[in-house]
Amino acid sequence: MAQTVSLSEKVNALAAKDWRKVAPPALPSGEPRFWNFQSSPPLPCAWPAQGSGKICYYLYAQATDPRLADGVRVAAPWAKAVADLRLPSPDPRIELLGMRLEELGIQGYRPLSGGELAIVKTGDAAKRGLEAWVAGRPGLSPGSLAEIKTYYCQWKRNNGVIAAALAPQQAEFFAWLACGD
User: Fold this and answer.
1) I need a surface site. Which of 16, 73, 97, 139 has the fewest CB within 10 A?
2) CB under 8 Å to 95, separation ≥6 — which residues?
3) Residues 6 or more apart in contact with residue 76 via CB below 8 angstroms
4) What is the arithmetic mean of pLDDT over 137-163?
5) pTM of this prediction exceeds 0.70
């Protein structure tokens, strides 16, 4: 039986190839940082999202820093992956946004509460729901829309540095989420 490759797996495979071309930010001597690329969850490329067809993943970077115990350094998006979900087998394409990382700041982290962890665990379903909505597939229930909003608001709270960087491109979607932040 053939194994299905998810859209996010396709995005990560393509991004891994382009990631090697991206230069780390210039650092003062003696400051070790170990950068890795990260991907946002799927986000609508246009608003209103329903039936627009295109989904975007923003590729950015995080760095561990031995001097930080409860956070990571975050760099601005260096690429965007776009896929048209109206196609039978959407293949993403990578649009490079820059060839050198631009550090944005430090994203702190903390243990999640039981409720927050439960929301994070709904991520796959929420992402599939958003993709179905963007693709214009019928049958998205009000409960599914609430699950999308809840998950993406939690993602924004957990990833404030990159979410703030994406705010100009995602202003209408973030407003629709109505996270109260």
Assistant:
1) 139
2) 79, 80, 81, 82
3) 60, 97, 98, 101, 102, 103, 104, 165
4) 92
5) yes
